[in-house]
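Sample A.
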Amino acid sequence: MINMFSCPIQIRMSDLDPYNHVNNGAQCNYFDMGRSRFFEYAFQAEIDWLTFKYVLVHVGLDFKMPIRFHDDLVCESAILEVGNSSFKMVQRLVDQTTGMVKTECQAVVVYFDREANKSERIPDMERAKLLEYKI
């Protein structure tokens, strides 16, 4: 995909299930890592989780093919659309050696005021950075 941010994923032995596949729950962690790295890259800042204002509110996964321990895995991330206070994101776990998409993720992330306990408008400067990764 065009304008996809990509980061490597390290598969650990503890990620495997009895079938020797990466467990579905571990794959959720891979997508979390991909989103975190995406935010740091797009916003050019290390995330301070105590003050970070983006919150994951929806996630949907499509498991296309099993992921195995020796797969050369990356998590690709991009933006589908940006609204006033939220955006839709697409992510993929891809084996770099084969180019095969193993799992796809669709997520909705909201800009959230923790003290007021409500969503807020995404600041224009951050909106512009997110739009750089819109596909």
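Sample B, a different protein:
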Amino acid sequence: MSRNFSKDALNAINKKAGKNISEGAVKRLAGTVKPGTLQSEAQLRQLIKQVSAMAKVPVSEDTIKDIISAVKKTGANPSSMETLMKMMLKK
């Protein structure tokens, strides 16, 4: 995905959360994502909760299930973390 999309996603999170989340914090979290992270429901659930906490955007259990289902259907990979953020912001 483009660099602008990443900045747009970060700006959207900051606007919704009313908090200034640094690009460095997002990069550190993204650095913890391994190929197996998105294959394991438990690890994916943990990642979603970490992103939610960092953004201070509550994510319901139904939304978590929707994200997990979408990741499994699309075969999302670690480089698509922006997609997860975008899905969370839509709920």
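Observation for Sample B: The chain has a mean pLDDT of 75.
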